Amino acid sequence: MIKAFVREDPARGQVFVHVIHRSDDGSRLGLRVEDGASSWEKVAPGCESPAAYVFSYEIAYVVAEAFQTLLEGHEDTRALRKDYDQERVRVDKMLAALIDISAMER
Q: Can you give the pTM of this predicted structure?
């Protein structure tokens, strides 16, 4: 199972991104990225994994926005989806009312 977690260092204004692969036997491998190449390193029990990426807060926010856009769509797309969901609720209520009215007329 692969998991990622983020740790911050407010004193330095940095964000550390750790990626861990935990094997079925409980051993852990930490992702290390250097000079554009990535590799997995064994992490000793009780030790922290190496940070795969280190960002300033400014860069971390920009990267987070890019991931959010990739995974959830652009802000306009999310707003449109919310509008569609609200319209669907309205139509469902209207249909339920029409069904109730038609049931009374029988």
A: 0.62
